[in-house]
Amino acid sequence: DQQVKQNSPSLSVQEGRISILNCDYTNSMFDYFLWYKKYPAEGPTFLISISSIKDKNEDGRFTVFLNKSAKHLSLHIVPSQPGDSAVYFCAARKSNTGKLIFGQGTTLQVKP
Amino acid sequence: DTAVSQTPKYLVTQMGNDKSIKCEQNLGHDTMYWYKQDSKKFLKIMFSYNNKELIINETVPNRFSPKSPDKAHLNLHINSLELGDSAVYFCASSSASSGNTIYFGEGSWLTVV
Fold it and tell me: Which terminal Cβ of chain A has fewer Cβ within 10 Å, N or C?
């Protein structure tokens, strides 16, 4: 029962272009969503988050969009840089549990 | 100045052995976690402690026993290791003051042979 899904295992983008990573969830009780970035042999690092009361949050080159009716969120990276090449995990949280449910990750490759 | 540090980073051990992974955080957080990343790359929570008290215990075999001597430490002890325990184990921490964002350690690669 995978409550958070990232259906694209990989994405390749040219440097300078926009990267769009997608995430779908099934549980309407989730109230907080996060994106993590992970390099090989390292732990996930927090990137950006959004509360369920918002539909957009922006931080520099990173913007997260939330569509609650579609139970869908996306991470936009613009402009993409080669250093953005990593695995990106979407995660969701229910406020009464405090635990994160992760998607299976999308590997982003940004080509110079 | 690693915020969440765990040791060892790599561990190769034989089936049936007992091993521990240690975790320490210097962020002043009051909640700590153990997550497991399996062969399919899914990250799943195993345990969570808040101020040394167990608050989340997912369906994990009782061969896995977390120990929190204080709120800055959460160790994971695994008895009678099995081949299926091979995975990457991530320690993490959070607090209300961090907006409940969870910060992860670098991971411990456990291989059971």
Answer: N
Is residue A8 classed exposed, middle or buried when 0-12, 13-18 and 19+ CB atoms within 10 A define those classes?
Answer: middle
Cβ-based neighbours of A56, under 8 Å, separated by 6 or more: A50, A63, A64, A65, A66
DSSP at B102: -
**A66: domain CATH number?**
2.60.40.10
For A16-56, the pLDDT digits (tens) are 999 999 999 999 999 999 999 999 989 999 999 999 999 99
The residue with tokens 């896995």 is: B64
| Alpha-helical segments (H) within chain B | none
The answer to whether A19 and B71 are in contact (CB under 8 A) is: no
Structure letter (DSSP) for residue A40: T
> What's the domain count of chain A?
1
Identify the three-state secondary structure at position B65.
strand
Domains annotated on chain B, with CATH: 4-107 (2.60.40.10)
Written as one letter, the residue type at B28 is G
Range of the domain at A32: 4-111
Query: Residue range A70-84: average pLDDT?
Result: 97
- CB-based contact B106 A43, cutoff 8 Å: yes
Amino acid identity for residue A54 in this structure: K
Chain A positions with Cβ closer than 8 Å to B: 2, 32, 34, 36, 41-46, 49, 87, 89, 91, 93, 97-100, 102, 104-105
DSSP A60: T
CB pair distance less than 8 Å for A46 and B43: no
